[in-house]
Amino acid sequence: MTQKNRLQSGGRIDRSKALTFTYNGKEYKGFEGDTLASAMLANGIDVIGRSFKYSRPRGIVAAGAEEPNAVMQLGATEATQVPNVRATQQELFDGLVSGATNGWPSVDNDLMGVVGKVGGKMMPPGFYYKTFMYPQSMWETYEKFIRKAAGLGRSSLENDPDSYEKINQHCDVLVVGAGPAGLTAALTAGRAGARVILADEQSEFGGSLLSSRETLDGAEASQWVEKVTAELAGMKEVMLLPRSTVNGYHDHNFLTIHQRNTDHISDKAPAGQARQTLHRVRAKWVVLATGAHERPLVYGNNDVPGCMIASAVSTYINRYGVVPGNELVVMTTNDGGYQAAFDWQDAGRKVVAIVDTRQNPQGAQVAEASKRGINLIKGSGVIDVAGSKRVTGVSIATLNAEGTAVQGSVTKLSADTVATSGGWSPVIHLAGHTGSRPVWDDKVVGFLPGPTVEKRLVAGAIAGDFTTAGALAQGAEAGRKALAELGLGQAEIELPATEEVVVHPPMTLFQIPHLKKTSEAPKQFVDYQNDVTAAGIELACREGFESIEHVKRYTALGFGTDQGKLGNIAGMAIAAKATGRTIPETGTTIFRPNYTPVTFGAMVGRDRGELFDPKRYTAMHKWHVENGALFEDVGQWKRPWYFPKAGETMQQSLDRECKATRESIGILDASTLGKIDIQGKDAREFLGRVYTNAWAKLAVGKCRYGLMCGEDGMVFDDGVTSCLGENHFVMTTTSGGAARVYEWLELYHQTEWPDLEVYFNTVTDHWSTMTISGPNARKLLQELTDYDVSKENLGFMDWREMKVAGVPARVFRISFTGELSFEINVQANFGLQVWEKLFEHGAKYNLTPYGTETMHILRAEKGFIIAGQDTDGSVHPYDLGMGWAVSQQKPFSFIGKRGMAREDCVRENRKQLVGLKTTDPTIVLPEGAQGVFDPKAPIPMPMVGHITSSYWSANLGHSIAMGLVKGGLDRMGEKVYYPLADGRVVEAEICSPIFLDPKGERQNV
Amino acid sequence: MLHIYCPHCCEYREEEEFHVKGQAHLARPLDPEACSDKEWGEYLYFRKNPRGLHHELWVHAAGCRKFFNVTRDTVSYEIKEVYLIGEKPSVVAASVSAK
Amino acid sequence: MQHYSGFGLIKHSLSHHENWQRAWRNPTPKKKYDVIVIGGGGHGLATAYYLAKEFGVTNVAVIEKGYLGGGNTARNTTIVRSNYLWDEAAHLYEHAMKLWEGLSQDLNYNVMFSQRGVLNLGHTLQDMRDIQRRVNANRLNGIDGEVLDAKQVQELVPHMDCSANTRYPVLGASWQPRAGVARHDAVAWGYARGADAHGVDLIQQTAVTDLIIEDGACVGVKTDRYGEIRADRVGSVVAGNSSVIAAMGGFELPLESHPLQALVSEPIKPILDTVVMSNHVHGYVSQSDKGDLVIGAGIDGYNGYGQRGSFPTIEHTLQAIVELFPIFSRVRMNRQWGGVVDTCPDACPILSETPVKNLFFNCGWGTGGFKATPGSGHVFAASLAKGEMHPLAKPFSMFRFHNGALVDEHGAAGVAH
Average per-residue pLDDT in chain A? Predict the structure, then answer.
């Protein structure tokens, strides 16, 4: 029979729009307006999953975000799989494919359930800490079995076909929750013209009003909801966000809203639409109108399918036209639970009994029950239910006045559904995210939001007022208060007339006692998802886990995907009782984002793949690509690594590039080097303070290499700075270090030496830099410029302005290769044009492009360092043998001077950078190899330093290396041994790091 | 995410635009050579790190690139004031534990 | 102490688990102890345990302002590894690793130490140079490790995107097979139970409000609940709150306390067997025995004691994870949280004497403290017992920041902690 539990009429579903969905491979029907849960209940599906630890059959308990059991696998295709979707929150759509997340071979006939039944007694909380220890070697085997049972749903194994987006929002008032309180808050603020965002997790606004039969202004409440929503929708400054859960409340009123744009249409977003949107909201004021969750009572076998919370029963009947069973027993500690029985009866099904734990309940609900002829059993509780895959009956016993013990005999009644109400817990999660501690309220029998530094208001059930009238009034009041705080004037709204409700005092009761002690009674579940029982909590307390945080961690209470929305308070109450304390004495819980789970994709937005991190290209990038370059990531830059030709190995390419440069001419795109323009009358003084060497006498037209250290004296960047004018310099930095150096300069200028008149501007991207290097470099450059670039007119370490290929250029005669070399800088938009011109003219010289790898080899042949490769934050200039770049004579104590004079920096035997020549010249030492003086020493071997740079030098015909060696500068000619991972021990001799042209004759031409 | 008022731009901007640079008012010794290793080490590394009111240096890195000071509570994360380099904080901890 | 075993579970199930002993007592403190340990986190409890068990000092109190193991022990992502670059750090963490191997049996408490291996990914040529350097150093220090290329990484982690098409392709990784994860709470509880069994008093819900200093020596502490409690030696093991205790002693430390955030997904079926860390794309992930993806990244830049950080840090972390594992895009994030980590300028801890006599500090573990818990406790216990720092602790004196002898794991290792 299809939809055997569906009513002929009523509810907010559209019976004219039938939808087909699949659960565990079988097709079912539902209607538009259903959730997956309501459709499953309509079809009489009782078992929707198996519990985590004991593999017990589980059914749907609730109707919203608090549902612990109905956690489903969703997705029609591999790529669209979504694990752990709550059926109570998933709107039904045609073609929806769902499945249970646990159960083998099937959720109805689960073999693990046998293990759970037999082994359950041996699996109290913390059992795994007490076993699987012996023998030590077996743990990995045990763990394999434990892991097999892990997890609920599964991840897709294919890439996500959908996209996600983020939007930054700013508003005057963010109202969270569009129930009666949220609606009046938003309406009040909206009428005054405030920028309002109203967000609600459900598909339509109305909150509790959607599933209640209360009237407003004498009509169905939904009519009032429609009217208010329509007015809000017409307001220009109001943004309405249904299907949008406010999941995180962060500092300074920053909140995140997770909006599901298409999950109600399909498991794959329609083309061109983002599946979900994450709103990042900065709100001047926040009104939390998040409502309350009904607490189920804790009693024996309360997890058997058919056990539900009372308000959920009403919701399924009133909102979805579904009666989730035939014979109902209601158990309640308060007036609220009665409504489920009335709704059930009105739906035409049998109410077996209302069991009220109060000794002498009074009032309208009691009178109504009696008027309806319902069997009202007072001062009693359901202590146990019968059935395994569905409730078949209940055991009812009389309780003492405090509800702590069973008195008298047990009555057994037949029933298939048990609806319980243990009172309401305000939904205070968001209120606690920024560190505010909740406060227990005895009257509310729940925690209320605590004091906060945030600009936050609360209204309605979250504030402990569970009536509709209270919610409406508090919402409007919160709206007015926000307006006043914002100085946005005043606005009034008319509140609708509500039915008069006189609430009689509830009983504070969480756990229904059993005839047996809790430890011996049938399992009484507190946290369904994690199989946490009352007995488990008592055991934890007995074992000394007394703080509520210990209880939670020991038992896993509240650690599920529902984060304990149903069970936490009952769990705390049971722990409090077990330790003889009150609930607040037991400790409060801390709530953390997210309120409900958020898709990784939505958290990531567009910042993945290509957009994970920006790519920076030089102006000549296109040319590099066309000419077959392979690229290296340097910071965000894509730099050509080398330019292989067809059939070449990498080493062959490098050999060719290196030789061409030393024999004729090579060209490097050096545009990525950081460039900082420095101006001002104190620019020179400033340079002298941040560099280790002297700058006072650098003339206009001259360039100088400089080392930059931290206050600790350790090298952190280097580069050439050129004097453009008396008060004007351009500094170059490493490619990766540009931003850091720039901020460093500003830091010192703004905080330490604001008296210096100097200005910095980062100009890296303004310039394209192409370095031509090799014996024919001058000839080539001269062909493209009218300026005389002869040795006499443009000496080593000079720079000049000139036109190159008709374009204004700065040409620096500096060299990182040891060859005659010119760095041509032109405005970036001319870069490619000049580059191509160089190739036009350079063909006859075999002008050869090279990348970072050849650059590294050529500079290593000359012993030049690369900051960040040959240095690591623990070496100072003297360690590098670069004392020549440190001026101890400068009047100002430059940055690094004092640091490098500390005791440990001037001691003997520091690691120093030296050259290393392998005894076998064909062996290229791996970079990162660690050296020892005694290769026969036992492990741990005393290490003396590592190889920082190492290459095959085609020009020299042997390998070359640089590395740090303890006391290396005083050990020239001594041997160091490098024991490699493959077992080889490579012998090398300490030498000068300058392998080629030690006198610098090649560049000095 | 913190919401920070840049005293140079005169606007509240998101924390993502700023870099925090640690404890404020760490003056570089005027004569480093006169410092002992201990004194230099303390300048370099030792910090107040209070639980509660803290004066710290921020830079509007993705904005005006200007540095400024912030007095912030390191527990509640409330920003009590922002003030310019060279200025003194007006909100200070009631009692400084000095022993 | 009641012995835990599978047989015991069966036996106790017959009496409905009514007769399990308390894991530890809830004692009222004495007036005077030989040693007071401030801080009942993993390191403090391990210190007390080893003091009593290995060094015969049983007249010990641990004073904890909240509940045992409630600080960073309860908030970290449980990664255990010892593949540090510098000898000093490597020896300390390897000392811890050796204690991890066998800790469950030593404590008779299953801390679920799972040696499923840790990968530190390299995405740039410099990353790979650094990895080579570190793995070579590890090898010569007797610590297991190898350098893997992208293909080998792919074999170990079949679901990670190791293709060349990503923004920062995986070029390779370092791989420490003996590394892994452990059940963080169980570590604190196991040490607490063991310490208690050896007579240590665990004083919970009691805050130290001041140090008692007489003639330049620390002779005890003042507490909010029990007034003065005296001791011959006091060890502070309070992680993020170390600067607060130091201020009571009248000195500063080279520390900043930062928020460190982490997050978990909803539990999913097993899909990731190893721990994957990437410093370059900035995130790390493992999967717990319950099925959660346990995810973390770096600290928030500002000082913060609020046990929470800023949202963009979480966003960036998940960007990194989805960049590495695009298939996780539809998995959902369940919960995030934060701890307070005390970071040192050289990313190494402080195990040290202080300017106050008989006052010792164990702090500065930054983001890497959990993995060191047994070693930290053992070495600190030895130091407190003797009144002089253990040889493995000596390089980690707070005074290294005076003479410049830093152990700079930050600058050199290029590894997320």
Answer: 96
How many C-beta atoms surround the C-beta of residue A118 within 10 A?
9
Query: Does B92 map to a domain?
Result: no
Q: Does C332 touch chain A (CB under 8 A)?
A: yes
Over residues C298-323, the pLDDT tens digits come to 899 999 999 999 999 999 999 999 99
Instruction: Give me the residue label for tokens 């042949």.
Output: A861
Residue B49 belongs to a domain with what CATH number? Answer: 3.30.2270.10
A928 to C129: CB separation less than 8 angstroms, yes or no: yes
pLDDT of C409 reads: 84
Mean pLDDT of B55-67: 97
- In a domain, residue B51? The reply is yes
3-state secondary structure C113-165: CECCCEEEEECCHHHHHHHHHHHHHHHHCCCCCEEEEHHHHHHHCCCCCCCCC
Q: Do B98 and C241 touch (CB under 8 A)?
A: no
Query: Using the beta-carbon criterion (under 8 Å), do A453 and B78 form an inter-chain contact?
Result: yes
- Collect all residues of chain C within an 8 Å Cβ-Cβ radius of residue A607: 315, 319
CB of C241 within 8 A of CB of B51?
A: yes
Alpha carbon A892 to chain centroid distance? 47
Residue A726 CB coordination number (10 Å): 11
pLDDT in tens, A719-740: 999 999 999 999 999 999 999 9
Judge contact between B47 and C254, C-beta under 8 A.
yes
Torsion of CA A875, A877, A879, A880, to 10 degrees: 100
Which range marks the domain in which residue B78 is found?
A: 3-83
Encode pLDDT of A92-114 as tens digits: 999 999 999 987 667 777 776 66
> Which one of C256, C305, C402 has the shortest CB-CB distance to B41?
C402
Residue A116: pLDDT band (50, 70, 90) is: low
Q: What is the CA radius of gyration of chain C?
A: 21
Domain annotation covers residue B60 = yes
The DSSP secondary structure of A16-38, one letter per residue, reads EEEEEEEETTEEEEEEET-BHHH
Which chain B positions have a beta carbon within 8 Å of A752's beta carbon? 27-28
How does pLDDT run across A668-704, given as a tens digit for each residue? 999 999 999 999 999 999 999 999 999 999 999 999 9
The subunits that touch chain C, with at least 3 C-beta pairs less than 8 Å apart, are A, B
Position B97 pLDDT exceeds 90:
no
Query: Is the CB of B19 less than 8 angstroms away from the CB of A893?
Result: no
What are A321's strand-pairing partners?
none
What is the ipTM for the molecules in this complex?
A: 0.96
- Map out the domains of chain A with their CATH numbers: 1-159 (3.10.20.440), 164-292+426-486 (3.50.50.60), 296-422 (3.50.50.60), 519-590 (1.10.10.1100), 621-672+766-850 (3.30.1360.120), 674-762 (3.30.70.1400), 908-991 (2.40.30.110)
Residue of chain B nearest C313, judged by CA positions: B1
At B60, which helix (H) or strand (E)?
none
Interface of C with A in 192-221 (CB under 8 A): 204-205
Cβ count near A821 (within 10 Å): 25
> What are the distances in angstroms from CA A151 to CA A267, A526, A583?
21, 20, 32
**Is residue A354 within 8 Å of A345, Cβ to Cβ?**
no
pLDDT in tens, A541-550: 999 999 999 9
d(CA A569, CA B67): 48
Cβ of C312 and B56 within 8 Å? no
Q: Output phi, psi for C371, to 5 deg.
A: -60, -25
Count how many domains chain B has: 1
User: For residue A949, what pLDDT band results from cuts at 50, 70 and 90?
Assistant: very high
Task: Determine the distance in angstroms separating the CA of B48 from the nearest CA of chain A, rounded to an integer.
Answer: 19
